[in-house]
Amino acid sequence: MPVGHPKKTISDDQLIQIEEWGKLGLTQNQIAANLGMSAATLVNRKRECAKVAEALVRGKDRGISLVAGKLWQKIEEGNLTAIIFYLKTQAGWVDRPGDEPPIGLPKASSKRYTPKKMKEPSNDD
């Protein structure tokens, strides 16, 4: 006679739900908990059934694609925050305290920038 719990299988409806949860950004631990199984059991099901592994990957890919599309839409609308985020994550832009600003711009500080007055030309000549 077998000992322990009966083997938990994953239905086609659950595969659809796994993909949806993956799209929403749930971790595999969270997905396993939603399915009523341990994370280790979900890992075993992934190894045993390619459909489970594919549903997890497909869901994550769909979520990333959806978010990337929304980000790109904001970039095209001229959203400066989205543009800066994209450049920092994709083009290596970084903020470094103490870096010199481009010529003509004040250093970042808590004080308001006031340009220096230029000296009046002298008429001593």
The value of Rg in angstroms is: 28 Å
What global shape is seen? elongated
Series of secondary-structure elements, N-terminal to C-terminal: HHHHH
Please tally the helical runs, counting DSSP H or I stretches of 4 or more residues: 5
Which structural class do the helices and strands define?
Answer: mainly alpha
Short descriptors:
mainly alpha, 125 residues
Compact overview of the structure:
With 125 residues, the protein is an all-alpha fold. Helix content is 54%, strand content 0%. It has a domain at 12-90.
Explain this structure:
The chain is an all-alpha fold and 125 residues long. The protein has a domain at 12-90. It is built from 5 helices and no strands. The chain has helices at 12-23, 28-35, 39-48, 50-76, 80-90. It is elongated, with a radius of gyration of 28 Å. The relative contact order is 0.09.
